[in-house]
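Lab notebook page, bench 4
Experiment: in silico fold of construct C2
Operator: M.H.
Input chain length: 119 residues
Purpose: comparison with the prior construct
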Amino acid sequence: MKFWEDVSKTATDAANYTVKKAGEFTNVAKLRYRLHIAETKLACTYEGIGRLYYSAVMDGDETMEAISDLMADVAEINAEVEDIKAKIEETKNKRVCPKCGAEIAPGSTYCNKCGEKLE
């Protein structure tokens, strides 16, 4: 009887682990999709800045206010991209060095690549 209980517990543990990992994979996939959308928005915003600047130079227009607004958008989108990347690494139980971007172990005090002291 003990043998079947052990087999049943092992099968249950394996199923629970599989469900947990599938959930983590789904979360990472969703975050990567959000990251792709944010990076696409960023590229479009950079393109908009370039078009406005080109127009200003060619036509002599005063479009600096519109360019400044787009540059503020770039700052917001960059912050969103960094936040999503951090969430992806957190979901994968990994940390990233803020200085060099290297993957580091969760309990590390210093970066293995550049030596940066971590919080």
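Observations: The chain has a mean pLDDT of 82. The longest strand covers residues 95-96.
Next step: discuss at group meeting.
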